[in-house]
């Protein structure tokens, strides 16, 4: 049972190599090489062997920055002069509304002034001085909405399209649809905030009902620790390394081969032998990929990796670039945590009581890392084949939370932005109402964002399906439209 | 003008008005049908039904869609179809893409509707209106079987318009099992045959893993291989089925379907400390061979069927086994959010019950009628209504026990209050510490000011800094202790012994319940009541009283501090801890560390006449401040013995009363909490449910009453009206599901058993027997198994044994048969057994068994292989499995939803958010890394090596022992040589480590 849909277009109409070269324009030799290698690997039954997309892709990799807790659109990307004008006036004079944790207070304009930037003249608040230089590469979707005002379900929705746990995340779907372009690294890598996991935990990057091979692999970025769990023996067993390990492996494979000899019909056995060989290669490639020692001082400075507060996220962004360079298909970076005992400021963007304090802190973190990532990718010519997405699970209210300095959850409106990988820089889609309370023009859910990302990767979101308990499931459920206006014309 | 234009258009188009006659097929088929096909059916047809409307067949077109009838014959103006194609609003005009319909096309449609909208039926219309889904194989009555000598008569009863019939099957003398006869017949048709029987070692390994999830011991293998008795195999099957390990293994399969775990899931993934009782129920049910119909009835409605049975009540843990969103259900203040969370909750229950028992994907009918199966949205919500009166929660396993314990508590509490009153009478009133503060007010820890404003989370207060309290005579200071450095509790008074804390705080020190407090009761006494007082002191906080002032005020010299410290938190919430410390003049006088949420601390501290300050400190117990809603009930300074210059008799009485107080308190502490289970809590009167259009709780349609779907038609599916009591609804559904005429329940179970014995079901979609599911490879065999189950009074062990004794099960899996491979690569015909990989639990347990470390302890609370830290979203950090408690079988693992165990997940242990009828099997490099390097594996390899080293004999004997433990076979000479070389270089550990990584260890022939 492997209901991956046949890819009708390329196979039927173009000789294989022609197709690869045609779509290779934005892909470079890596994809060509990887896709050709697929033919060899598919034969060995490798579930992660590269698969042909439904159409010629614009992007070959995705880096998704996720800002958990609820990033306030009205203080960042979504300019609302009318809200500023109504500063201090009652937001809900009839007292009919009930937010997640509070009754709305008065209208509260952005805590940071907005300015226009770049040739496109897009508005952005002073919270992001560095990203302001990148607006001409970014496309904003201002009319995002969520189906839940609760962190857990809304996180699940943003990642998997469903407010319930148990559904595959976008990274898992992409890996399922495209396989891996790297034989030495996992296809879907997650870099959680060093302070802890986001709301909902590791199942945010789970494979749901897809085979476990598609789940995100968490990369540990603490210095001195192995980047992948169980990459090497730990603690009392950390002496187990080097040449003696090879002797054990040789013995293992000797037994495995003689066992397999009498069981030729069971191809799984051969695949498992291959998995141990791949594991040995991973022991070499993963430390190399995560070692920042080889980066230039200029690069390290660009990502500000030594800074106490903004350095850890800069490090994640730099790692993401290194992983994408090495063929990783989907990297998800978390800018904020949840279940942590960190002090002083909120551990993520969930600014209920003091937005200036918390967004002030996290804004600087995101600004520095994301701007470095965009400019670095661009300088290396990687941006055109790498789709960068920055999103959150919901926005925040245009009214103050009660009488305080914070804002409550707002599932009715938020902004996501995209860059690279076939995105038309400086564009935007959708609008909120004049106060930023609800998406008003072209309202969308994550379905459209997901459909667009899959589209750029060459996947048709309606054809990427997997049978589970009676339904051929999709990332986009029964919804989703590609957001054409933010795409380059050729995308 | 417009009318004129229209009529001229019509004339042009239709050539003559007379053409609009009732029986005119050419107009409809020539113009209208092609137009609908071309411009409408892409979105309103068989594949998509936007707005629930279909225009591809007559039946649907006239039924209309979500917004109402699309076509009103004779009334074009009332027909939505016309309104939508002519709308001026671009957002509502149809079709949404491409050019709008031309004036000519609009006019044609209008004229057609005005003329009566005649729609002559063609084949497509007729096919749409004759619904054949009632003839789907899985809802037909079970075939009946009649053995007559060597012949087996199979009768398919006529039903649902299907004719039925009888055929005869030749039963071969050997093997005698009809199971093999069915399989033989199908193989014979393709010219194939079964593989020969596997060897004895393979058979015992297969049986042992299959029935116990564990390998056999080398000794048991030896015995079986040498057992020449004709019924040796059957005796082994009996032995394995009778072992308690059988339930431990098969409960895993059922818990997969029940998506059982020990935490809530979602954002605030809290513990369910009493969920395990349901897990043990399942294990015991399988071991006791509880009839399957009873097993199901108890799980769906046990509390209703047998109100006094603890077992039956625990069984309903089934309904509550899935995830539950604490934030949406409890914390959210918005009713919209709460309704959405509740709708998801009911969906989870209904889906679990119907999918697990009958293999129907009922949840597909939540937003619209089921797209494949004939199940309406209304039927879905009728099923929800069966469960409308139950919620998930902690429930006492025995109402009787709980009542007894609670009255015992009430008696002791009343006695305590009486004794306290007598003491007060003799010793004097003293001073109530809470009431030093005005009613309802609080002291702000940030500045010592008295406030009535609501306070929340405080993480920005400087710790260990005294804040002078003004305006509360008798109170000197408050502070936020962090215990990392010295803590100052009064002027120049540094103390030691305050435990380290997180340095955060919630709310204020208050003469009122805390903002977030859930209960003001301790031991049955409500301290918010009139006769009592409540001093709230959330951890972390400290307060220092001025004894000189209080002494003067109370008119006493020496004194006693009395009161009861406890939590104002929900008992059902997690097992948080906190500390409470008392200092007198800076000297540590009383300290209780790690007080649990379900415990209290009685204060009785002597305070000398010379003492100047009294300091009370609440700290967080090292697990964060979450749920540390500490307060002191009736905190009082009572006059001491010296003050109360009592006569000898009164003094003696006072001493007696104090002793009595202590013994009553001790007795109260002895009263256990009633046993609980995480299950469902029913309400008297279930709320009325309505259809939720498009699954949106805010868009309600007609009311529904408790009922199920009509598709199977095996028994009436209506279970009453709005007045039907809660218990009655679930009982009726349970009876409907296990009704002897229900063809699905026994078929689904028989297939599940088959699936686990062969690695593949007769139906390969074990939880989908609907039109979207797979068809049975051997429909008659499936029915025979189902009938056999019913005939044996729903005994599952009976069916297991029938399957296990078949020649089909005993076949070798390693046979090469290229003819068969070519014809049937998937082995659907079972020309051999299927080789299988161990699942995560079996692999872990097998490693523990061969290492000699498996802890056989059965039942009880799950083992927690993680460190738990209380927080808004609790933190689970896995710890090295280095103690016997953590070497229990995997079925007893405490399963955390948001933080799956990385070792288990890597081996395809599923996310318990999903109903999992069949395990996935992936082969990855990460798996290889996990098995070769994970600390669990390495420690067990070490233990296995130590176990072998303890034995006598030469190196070769040790190598042989290692092979025997891991594979239950001797090493070949070649293997022995290679193994000895490895052991020579790196020791036995290296050999053991590799043996438990081999394909032979991980795969079963």
The biggest beta sheet of chain B is recorded as: 6 strands, antiparallel
Q: Roughly how much helix do the residues of chain B carry, as a percent range?
A: 25-40%
Count helical runs of chain A. Answer: 12
Termini separation of chain A (Å)? 33 Å
Could you please describe the fold and organization of this structure?
With 491 residues, chain A is of the alpha/beta class. Chain A has a single domain, classed as Alkaline Phosphatase, subunit A, CATH 3.40.720. Chain A is built from twelve helices and 18 strands. Chain A has helices at 8-13, 16-23, 28-42, 81-85, 151-160, 170-178, 243-261, 267-290, 297-303, 311-325, 355-379, 446-456; strands spanning 61-66, 104-107, 114-117, 122-125, 138-144, 188-191, 217-218, 330-334, 386-391, 395-396, 399-401, 409-410, 414-419, 428-429, 431-432, 439-441, 466-468, 471-473. Chain B is an alpha+beta fold. Chain B has six domains: 2-130, no CATH class; 139-198 and 743-833, no CATH class; 291-398 and 675-739, no CATH class; 400-428 and 646-670; 429-643, NPCBM/NEW2 domain (Jelly Rolls); 936-1004. Helices cover 39% and strands 14% of the residues of chain B. Chain B has a six-stranded antiparallel beta sheet. In chain B, strands 5, 17, 19, 22 and 24 form a five-stranded antiparallel beta sheet that branches. In chain B, strand 29 (866-869) and strand 30 form a beta hairpin. In chain B, helix 7 packs antiparallel against helix 24 (779-791), helix 28 packs parallel to helix 31 (935-949) and helix 31 (935-949) crosses helix 33. The N and C termini of chain B lie far apart (85 Å). At the A-B interface, helix 5, helix 7 and helix 8 of A face helix 17, helix 29, helix 30, helix 33 and helix 34 of B.
